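Lecture 7 notes: from sequence to structure.

We start with a single chain of 342 residues. Read the sequence below before looking at the structure.
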Amino acid sequence: ETDLTYDVLRRILPTDALDMPQLDADRLVFDNSKPGDYELISLSDFTFGEQAFEANASLDAEGRLVRGDTDVADNAAHSTVPGPADPKPDSFELVYPQAAGVRMGTCPFPVRDSYSYSSIAAALHAETEDRAAEARVPMDEAGDDAESDGSEIADADVAAVEPAGNPMALGSAFHAACQWLIEMGADALPAERADALTRLWCLTPEQRERFDVALNRWLRSSVRAELLAWPCVRAEVPFFSLGCEDKDIARYGAYAEGAIDALATDPADPSRALVIDYKTGGTPDETPDQLFEKHALQARVYSDVLHKAGFKTVTVKFVRVEQADPTLFVEPAEPQVVTYNL
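Now the structure, written as tokens:
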């Protein structure tokens, strides 16, 4: 350790012939120093160099500084040294902050003057989509057989708190996989990514098996080949547009919003567009007429948005990736497709 006491005192106090600081001086060495600027207060006898000093102050029972002889001080010579700016001792009240109760809850979405297919389907108690969208929609009691495009689960953060086996989680995982395939320009989904989606959406072993079968069917399908043949293919294309003028849809809001699973366009021919919407779940016993009526509302929403964007001809194809096309006897089986030309 280095003791700087001597060096400090030598620079602020007068020194003797031996360059020793004079502790009993009454001033400092600075030009404007005056008598009384410095005073030695010693609580005990001590020696500094060859100089001996006696105690000239003490502390009383409360720890206050008392000048002069200790015995005299105890008898009432309470010459307490006040603070330099305040002759009275400082005092304060220690206040502890009061604990504040915290209540947390889910804030409802504000009312919006817009609609999506999910919101219309919920209002009509129709079969909803099967993947992430802007709002939670109660799940259909049909469970795993409910045809789905993933919109019932708001996002991955919601999925993390959903119980394993949520019948809509499969649709969300499938849509995420197809989005990755398009954005990466890949022809296959790596096993590591499939495993990650399984963990993210809490798929059960049975759902994972369905996921693998559906994805394999989609990857080998002719409708996917048709999609990829277009010059420009985009995944999860968001839209916010003026709403449909049809009375049965216009009553749900002045604007339409949502996202298109896959949108194919041709910069050389901006008059036409192809929309692909993936559907998981469903049952094989639905007739073509039933399916055409079932998806007509969603097809109208998509086509109206794209018509307002300037496209003249819009083809919308709903691809039922878990249902084989009963009219085609080929291996591997093709997914059933419901097509609208609007």
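The domain at 114-341 is CATH 3.90.320 (Lambda Exonuclease; Chain A). Keep this in mind for problem set 3.
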